[in-house]
Amino acid sequence: MNQEITPEQFATIQKIAKQLAPRYVFGSYERDDIEQEATIMALDGLKRYDGVRPLENFLYTHVNNRLKNFKRDNFYRITTGNAERAQQAKKDLFAASVSNDPIVCVEEDLSDSIDTKEAIEKIDRLLPAKYRADYLKMTAGAKVSKKKKMEIYSLIQGIVGENYE
C-alpha cells in the first residue's frame, strides 16, 4: 500500500531523527548516518501507525527501539568473533608491504614514522565514510569490484603515504 506522507508527518520524522541520532552514534556510524537510518525506520513505522496516540510519541518510541536494535546488531568488539577476523584482515592488507621498518608519512601533523597499528588507526580515522563499507569488505576478504579496490588503494596511499597495490 502506497501511503502519501504529509509535510507535517515528514517534519515530525526529521525532528525525531535529529533528536535521537546523537544518542546512537558508534563505530563508523556518524550522526548523519544514524539520522538517515532513523528516517528510514520512521517511514517504515508509519505503516504501523494506528492513530490512537500522537504520531510524535508513536514514532519516537518506534525509532528509539529500532535504533537500539540497530546498534546492538551492528556494534562489535574488536577482539571477538567476526570483528577479530576483520581486524586481522586489515592487518593482513598491509602485511605484504609493511615490514618492521616504520612507514614514512606525508602529513606534517604526524611524526616522521608510525607503525602498522597507527597506520590502520589513521586509515580508520581518515577514510571517507562512503568508502568504509567496501574497505571493511576488503579487509574481511569479501569480493569488491576492481574499480572500488583501486579507489580505496589510492585513498590509502594518500592517507599513509605508501603504495599498497
**Structural class of the helices, strands and pairings?**
mainly alpha
Mean pLDDT: 78
- End-to-end Cα distance, whole Å, is 49 Å
Outline, from the CA principal axes? elongated
Q: Write down how many β-strands occur, each being a DSSP E stretch of 2 or more residues.
A: 2
How large is the count of helical segments? 7
Based on CA atoms alone, the radius of gyration comes out at 21 Å
Low-pLDDT segments: 96-114
Largest sheet: 2 strands, antiparallel
DSSP strand content? under 5%
| Oligomer class | single chain
Order of helices and strands: HHHHEEHHH
How many domains, as an integer? 2
Helix content: 55-70%
Report on this structure.
The chain is mainly alpha-helical and 165 residues long. The protein folds into two domains: 7-74; 81-160, no CATH class. It has seven helices and two strands; from the N terminus they run H-H-H-H-E-E-H-H-H. A two-stranded antiparallel ribbon has the order 1-2. Helix 2 packs across helix 3. Residues 96-114 have low confidence and may be disordered.
